[in-house]
Amino acid sequence: NSMSVEEKVGQLLIIGFGGTRVTPHIKFWVKNRHVGGVALFSRNIVDLEQTARFTRELNALTDTDIPLFVALDQEGGNVVRVKDGAMVLPGNMALGATRSPRLAYVAGQGLAVDLTKLGFNMNLAPVLDVNSNPKNPVIGVRSYGEKPELVAEMGAWYVRGQQEMGVVAVAKHFPGHGDTQSDSHFSMPTIDADLTRLEAVELLPFKEAMAAGLDAVMTAHIALPRVAESTQVPATLSKRLLTDILRKRMGFEGIVMTDGLEMQGIVEQYGSGRAAVLAILAGADMPMILWTPKKKEEVFQALLAAVTNGEIPMARLEESVRRILKAKAKRGLFERQLLPIDEILREGSHNPIHDQVAESIAREAVTLVRNHGDVLPLRSVRYRKVAVLAPPGAFADVMAQEPNVQVLTVPYIPSRERRKSDVAEAIELARGADLLVMAVVNRYHVEMLKSISKSLPYLPVAMVSLASPYYLTSVPDVDAYVCTYSYLESAQAAAAHALLGHTPMLGKLPVTIPGLYPFGHRQTEPKEAPAVAASVR
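RE: above sequence
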């Protein structure tokens, strides 16, 4: 009741900005515009000390005011903003491969403890999209898997763990981005599903997370022509989806945050300011504007004008502000005292117990999908020479320690010229080898493997995917196939130790590999290595 209209409008906004310290621009938006939250990205983060100082400077701007949400995307896997001072999880699909709700729960807890220490109180995670479309370009390994029941179970336990430790969970991307074939950063994808299908697949994980006490959801800029008001209205702006389905049918009382309102899926049709107004009218609470000062100003002025002229009724504005304040109170932001910088630096950047959790996830996720001829594991009695190609990292480092293994490292993003030269070098390295092992992170590596295999057609090949499990469809004739669903160091190390027979491969496919292997598939390892070399078959 004590807030001005400008302060109420400001609370609706969660914004991003450049720089690694508080600037006059940031101070203006926090102190003068009273924004509800800020989101930090890799551009804002350097190391443990800088991050901790920055978040404390941000929080200090609201010492006598309403506290800020200080948010980031720390999903794990491909989307990690903080690498120094916070737990780095292998990623959601790796968790899905473990089938362990226990690991999902302790992952949420451990990460929240680290984020709180650093000064964050909101994580734009978990991803609750069901990756039912193998051609999805933007979700993939960010999802727990293709079955709604698996995504629901893992996501709900992760939410419990994260929120119990005081960090707001923001489940995304409502109502589900998993069955799309385009990226909403560049265009508006479409899902041709009716409400019955949505409730059975896409909405189930959100429903379970809500039952676990979920604080917030993030909307998707996707069209659902069989559910929304029209074929061109994205979920972010659909009253049927945000009010009729999410609020009324599903009973969600938490915060509804939009995905970034500078993404082309929104901007090209509505513009950021108008989209923010329409999102509030549809049932959203917090428009997110992350990149340009001009867009932030456009959104603030559009919302203020819509409230002033009555398009957004005062009751509707206050409904959203109340949800935001309740979430801040629920997670203790009004009373939270951040640890002194000296204490954080004394504790160091890594919590050994949290590192063990990440390593356990990585280890239990490793999935042996195929093992023709029992070419794995690489017990030294079987092989005189093994040629290994891998990007720089733990996989290459561990393999290089083996006496019968020769390693060629290839860049993560090799140029055309580098690919050509590395393929030629790999062919020479692999001549006379008993087995070729290649760790792949992207399509560049997959194409390199195809070229090498074509030149050495009789050489057994083991492919290790440190990313998408679907890569096997591009090289369907490899003798062995192993998935980690992640290229982070813990996943790379786990893959290497598994290939060398140091640890068992216990993971199960969290997705179907079309035409090859079903959801849940796992090839069991041979109990003993054959006495003859793999090349003599």
